[in-house]
Design brief:
Elements lengths: L7 E11 L2 E7 L11 E4 L2 E9 L2 E6 L1 H6 L10 E6 L19 E10 L4 E6 L2 H4 L8 E4 L2 E6 L5 E6 L1 H6 L10 E6 L1 H11 L1
Antiparallel strand pairs: 1-2, 1-6, 2-5, 3-4, 3-6, 4-5, 7-8, 7-12, 8-11, 9-10, 9-12, 10-11
InterPro entries: ATP_synth_asu-like_sf, Lumazine-bd, Lumazine-bd_dom, Riboflavin_synthase-like_b-brl
Catalytic activity: 2 6,7-dimethyl-8-(1-D-ribityl)lumazine + H(+) = 5-amino-6-(D-ribitylamino)uracil + riboflavin
Organism: Algibacter lectus
Length: 196
């Protein structure tokens, strides 16, 4: 389980294809605290650390993961949001994020500066999984726990404060950027009940 509170921004230093798998090597300030077999969320996707070398570590994404997330669009030097799994007894500062359970991808359709903050708008294919956002509910974008504003059937916006803008990869988003979405677990159940 994760909370959606990003710990570090990693930089992709190497990408190596092996059959249908992609080995992703990341340079990060938290590498020294990692160990082999540990789970780390990358843009909200839970992957297992398989190798560590100085300030870099490697994880492997399989075809299923690459097909359903934005990890298949990664390039060397890209920035990725990183979060280690939460410890039992930690404060839940964001919301309950399953990690590795990315529901689908979305496209950034607008970035608007708002006098000291930013408003990002994303659209997604509602028909793919019938996922809904809830006004003032939670959503995870690239692993970052956020509050939904302007919720619609197939789009929503989030307001980003300067701290989040500077400490996540939101500062790299522009129109057309593809992001990972994980819809709020509780919101999913409410939406399913409402459809009955």
């Amino acid at each position: 389980m994760f909370t959606g509170i990003i710990e570090d921004i990693g930089e992709v230093s190497s990408l190596k294809k092996e059959l249908d798998n992609l080995h992703i090597t990341v340079k990060s300030g938290i590498t020294s605290e990692l160990k082999i077999d540990q789970s780390v969320a990358h843009n909200g996707v839970c992957l297992t650390v398989v190798a560590i070398d100085n300030d870099e570590y490697t994880v492997t994404a399989i075809k299923e993961t690459l097909d359903k997330t934005n990890l298949n669009t990664l390039k060397v030097n890209d920035k990725v949001n990183l979060e280690r799994a939460m410890k039992l007894g930690d404060r839940l500062d964001g919301h309950i994020v399953q990690g590795g359970h990315v529901d689908q991808t979305a496209i950034c359709t607008n970035v608007e500066e708002a006098n000291g903050s930013w408003v990002f708008t994303f659209s997604y294919n509602f028909d793919e999984n019938k996922n809904l956002t809830i006004e003032k509910g939670s959503v995870t974008v690239n692993g970052t726990s956020l509050t939904v504003v302007n919720s619609k059937k197939d789009s929503f916006s989030v307001a980003i404060i300067p701290y989040t803008y500077e400490h996540t990869n939101f500062n790299t988003f522009k129109k057309g950027s593809v992001v990972n979405l994980e819809f709020d677990v509780l919101g999913k159940y409410v939406a399913k009940l409402a459809s009955l």
